Amino acid sequence: LELPPRRFASHRASPSRRVDAAMARHAPDYAIMKRRAEEDRIAGHVAAARDKNKAMVMAHFEQRTGARIERRAADARVRKAKASLDADLDRRRRKLAQLLEDEQEQYEREVEATFETPEQRKQRLFARAKELRAKREAARKEEVARRNFERLRAGTDDLRKMDSDHLLLTATRERAAQLAEAEEKARRDREEDERMAIEWERLRQEKIAREEREAREAAERNREMVEALEGQVGLLKEMTAEERAKEAEDAARMLRAWSEEEKAEKAREAAKVEAERIERLKVRQDNEVTARQRALEAGKEFNEDMARLQATLDREAGEEAAEKAAAERRRLEAIEHRRRLEEQMAVEKEEQGELDKLYAEEQEREWRKREMQWEAEAAARERLMKDVDASRREHIAKVEEDARRAREEDKVRASRTKEEIAAEDARLAAEAARVKAKNLQHQKELFNQMRLREEAAAKEAQATYLEGRLMARAEEGYQKQLA
Fold this sequence. Notes:
This protein is an all-alpha fold and 483 residues long. Among the domains are: 93 residues; 36 residues. It has four helices and no strands. The chain is rod-shaped. The relative contact order is 0.07. InterPro entries: CFAP53/TCHP (IPR043596), TPH_dom (IPR043597). It comes from Bicosoecida sp. CB-2014.
């Protein structure tokens, strides 16, 4: 506040202007400096709160912007992967369509190649007719040559005798060769039967040994599979128990951390409230001390002014004793000056009251701003705690869902393993049955071959016997003709 210009207007030439100057140097300047210092301190707090609020807004904005950028990047990657998959699918579809078209064209060409044209059919028939005509002509010529040769031989006695002798010699040699061949064949048959019997016995023993070995191997595989399955089930139980214990431990640790964070937050809130209360008390005490100091300084300055005024009056009264009119005038001026001084002091006191009132109003406004800021921070902390709680619950639910899915997958895997074991057992049983049926079939075939060989040997022996009888009869007829 500026001092009124009329403060020393009527006393410019007064002897007591030094007292007025001293009063003007002390109380108003001190009040202004104190007020400026208090305003600077309040402005510093306001700037700090504004910077803090700005930093908080920037942090929230960066978090939201980062999350939005990550979502957009993830969406872009998903779209890119989907476009790549769609392009690959279209390429494979085009390739399959081209393959199908090529196969269809190849099939059409092959179908067209299977049909004969009339010209091709005509040429094929002509070639077949020529071939048949050539075969008939060759057969006819051969038949004519054979009959001419037979007619020639039949018309010559020497040739007929030579033929008869040659036929007899040939029949005798062939008979001896047939008898030797029959004996050799019988011997080979006996050796083959003995060898087949030995081979069949060996195969039977190998089959028995193989069946026993396969049975042992199947039992061993089943035992190993059962042991592996039991180990997997035990390991699954241990892993499930460990996961449950770990989940319980994580949940307990999270609850403890949450409780500790809540306690720490309450402690910080209490410490902050206590610090603010102490700050308010300190400010109030500072204000009271400042008011008392101002009052003491004002009283001290008043006493000093009064002392200086009294000394000045006394000195002036001693110096101007002779001049009563001047003394009276100076006395009246002193009285007037005191009156004005008292008025000025009343004005300054009133102004100081207004300053205190303004300062109190400013402090009240600043306090309301702080309370609003604290309420906003408390609401933000509460929203943050709710978000953290929701995220923790979602994480716990996700962990439980993952554990449930893992258990279901383990159950499905165990069921699939059992089914595979059962299928493998069924396959082994079917393979064993197939091998057994194959061995039985092989045995039946061996028996059939032996039976067919015996029947063939019997038929051959009968044919040999009939041939011998016929040859004997022919020999008897020939001997009769010779006789």
